[in-house]
Amino acid sequence: MIDFSERKEQYGRLEKELVRLKAEYQSQKMPKDQVELLRAKMKQARSDTEKKEPKRKFARLRYKYAAAAAAMAGAFIILPNTSAAAADAMERIPVIGHLVEAVTFRNYEYQSDRNMADIKVPELVAAQQAQADGETKKKLERTAEEINAEIRRITDELVEEFEQNLEFDGGYQDVVVDSEVLATTDDYFTLKLNCYQGAGSGYAWNYYYTIDLNTGERLQLADIFKEGADYRTAISENIKAQMKEQMEADEDVSYWLDSDVEEWNFQSISDDVSFYLNAKGNVVIGFNEGDVAPMYMGTIEFEIPPQVLEGMWKY
Q1: CA distances, 190 to each of 15, 100, 103, 156, 277 (Å)
Q2: Fewest CB within 10 angstroms: 61, 114, 149, 196, which?
Q3: What phi and psi values does residue 306 have, to the nearest 5 degrees?
Q4: pTM, whole model, 2 decimals?
Q5: By C-alpha distance, which of 186, 228, 191 is closest to 314?
Q6: Is 92 strand, coil or helix?
Q7: How far from each other are the two terminal CA atoms of the chain, in whole angstroms?
Q8: For position 168, what pLDDT does the model report?
Q9: Is the dihedral of CA 261, 263, 266, 267 positive or negative?
Q10: What's the helix, strand, coil split of the chain in %, to 5?
Q11: Of 43-47, 127-131, 285-289, where does mean pLDDT reach its minimum?
């Protein structure tokens, strides 16, 4: 039987510790005027994506713009500003029913007149307090570390590129990375990594990480359907129907569906398409800027109704 009085005391102690760590963390942040300047630059950078642009095919923009070294005197850098103690305290929060949690591993922040970076690096933690068999826990820990390594590689490359661009004179650059937990159910956990990079115009893209909590393995879309099921056609046709419906309802909505440039038109999802399972258990397909629509449409998601995939699920 759970000792709720003991659990309450644990929460009380941890809450006090987190309050202390929060105060310590906030004491390292930028002055108020710098924070307001950073927010203004982020707003301006993001507004660039509202401009309609022709489709451009690229995995990630690279920018060669930066302020001169003399202009860096006003820069403010914290790396990291989330201490190991804070991450450890969050890891020790009592968990009921959740096998995986996301904590902030470190922050990279930079601010000058022409350059801004706000990169929050998450880390997945296999909760030690949760109930799971030994083999599943081992797989969860292995999967979490594989995902963490991938996220560190992505964010390290962005930091490295940002710092390299500081060596060039003129221009502006903005890099923003954060994350959110999209779903935590008894069966699945999904983390979304949001990335934005701007220099004049901007580009946004996302990464999705879904873990099957019953097996401890990272999921690919094919893993959730029966062998031989034509889920790609079913999902693709439903996405096309949703695109048409949205465009008919709003003249400002545009997708590459029946354009004159045939190679731009959306035909079908790929085997490695970005996806996750939401709280309702429905498949959600995600596209980056420029994948299936003009850049001003931003990143896009389509929730697939369950009846579309009826009879195809593996379980």
Answers
A1: 26, 10, 13, 22, 7
A2: 149
A3: -60, -30
A4: 0.67
A5: 228
A6: coil
A7: 32
A8: 81
A9: positive
A10: 40, 25, 35
A11: 43-47
